[in-house]
Specification:
With 113 residues, the protein is of the alpha+beta class. The protein has three helices and five strands; from the N terminus they run αβββαβαβ. Bound molecules: adenosine monophosphate (AMP).
Length: 113
């Protein structure tokens, strides 16, 4: 069964697009936790970071470079931002399709909750 992110990638359900290229899509989170909260999602399905394989190296590198590019595009380069991947139950993962959260636009507490 397709995940909600696969349906967004396949244009079966709408999303607010922040960026797209051949390998990934970036959308604004439907339940933002910061003034900027974007999800960068590889088009190639990887369930979660713990299941990524050596062959996924290019996809993973592209994902992080894209997150940084979107941060710049959205004006976060000077103020700073955070990139987060939630993995599994304790990590807070809710959608089993790898995605990077890009958060910014306010100071972010550390350690996270
Ligand atoms: P995670 O909990 O790390 O798996 O992150 C899943 C994220 O997807 C959450 O921050 C949700 O708010 C977000 N989300 C779920 N459905 C949608 C949707 N249709 N459009 C945009 N973001 C979504």
């Amino acid at each position: 069964m397709k995940t909600i992110f696969q349906k967004i990638i396949d244009r079966e359900i709408p999303a607010k697009l922040a960026y797209e290229d051949e390998h990934c899509i970036a959308i604004h989170d439907i339940n933002p936790q910061a003034p900027v909260h974007v999800l960068v999602i590889p088009k190639q399905h990887i369930t979660r970071i713990a299941e990524a394989k050596a062959d996924d190296q290019n996809t993973l590198g592209h994902l992080l470079l894209s997150a940084a590019a979107v941060a710049k595009k959205l004006g976060l380069e000077q103020s700073g931002f955070r990139v987060v991947i939630n993995n599994g139950r304790d990590g807070g993962e809710t959608v089993p399709h790898l995605h990077v959260h890009l958060l910014g636009g306010r100071p972010l507490a550390w350690p996270p909750g």
